[in-house]
Amino acid sequence: MKWLTVSLLLFISHNSMASPEQDRQAIRAIYQKNFPTVPFSDYADGVYAFDSDARDSWEAIKEFPPYAFVLEQGEKLFTTPFSNGRYYGDCFNNKGIAIAQNFPYWDTQKQQVITLPSAINDCRITNQLTPFAYGTADIVALQSYMADSSRGKTIQTHIPASALAAYQAGKAYFYQRRGQLNFSCASCHVDNAGKFLRSELLSPALGHTTHWPAYRLNTGTVNTLHSRFKVCNQLIRAKIDPAQSQSLRQLEFFLSYMANGLPLNGPSLRK
Questions:
Q1: Cα(88)–Cα(202) distance, rounded to whole angstroms?
Q2: How many other β-carbons are positioned within 10 Å of the β-carbon of residue 249?
Q3: Nearest Cα to 204, choosing from 227, 174, 178, 176?
Q4: Cβ atoms 122, 271 nearer than 8 A
Q5: Residues of the chain with pLDDT under 70
Q6: Where would a tag sit more exposed on the chain, N or C end, judged by fewer CB atoms within 10 A?
Q7: What CATH number is given for 2-64+158-270 in this structure?
């Protein structure tokens, strides 16, 4: 039934008239067809949904998570008042606790995608503080702490009518072939998900936004989703879009909508 996967991919990648919900159902149908024994909720675990041996090791390491120090740093920053007496929590609904599942979202006033890191910097600007450089230790720690408070909450990304152009741009980025290797995001994470590329098992795109920030065993550091986007573009020798650029926010918006209903489990651990 290979024709089914191909036809669905063509439908998603080339039918600009497809609604976000049609896209979501189609991409899920691909994974369900290719991996009928994998429960939907397991896609929150990325590549570990496919590899039971690696999953066992991953679960064991999580007993003593190497990112614990980042959570401590994030909590300290989050609970320390600014010079004006306000806190990060004052910038967010529910004081910033258990809200990470609602990011990214479309800001109808600003007419742009707002991610959790960009919202943290907006909070700093509102309180007359210099914004953090994206990907640096303090903003990663804050994002990690806030994500951890949402652990187990399901992703809730909405696409209002005014956000359709941004959603379609993120979708186009996902399917566009680029770089010297002429790969798209979908080349690895839809067409070849669950297959080996050299020694690495390729993860499914479904669930790519669930587990960030993530401690990378190969670098010994906690990285962000946008830093992972950067690495992917480097590997295919493509243009490197900066973290939190419009194009990467839109890509995250698209991927997050595809992952609706999956639980957050970040910060997490990845090879």
A1: 37
A2: 23
A3: 174
A4: no
A5: 1-16
A6: N
A7: 1.10.760.10
Can 185 be counted among the known catalytic residues?
Answer: no
CA dihedral 185, 173, 31, 226 (to 10 degrees): 60
CATH superfamily of 68-148: Cytochrome c-like domain (1.10.760.10)
Domains 2-64+158-270 and 68-148 share a fold: yes
Question: What is the per-residue pLDDT for 255?
Answer: 98
Q: What residue type is assigned to position 222 of the chain?
A: V
What CA–CA distance (Å, rounded) separates 56 from 60?
6
Residue 53 pLDDT: 84
Q: Catalytic pick from 91, 123, 185, 232? A: 232
**Domain segments of the chain as ranges:** 2-64+158-270, 68-148
Q: What does DSSP assign to residue 269?
A: E
> For residue 47, what pLDDT is reported?
92
Predicted TM-score (pTM) above 0.90: yes
Q: How far is CA 223 from CA 24, 111, 204, 226, in A?
A: 27, 27, 19, 8
Backbone phi and psi for residue 240, each to the nearest 5 degrees, phi listed first: -95, 110
pLDDT in tens, 148-197: 999 999 999 999 999 999 999 999 999 999 999 999 999 999 999 999 98
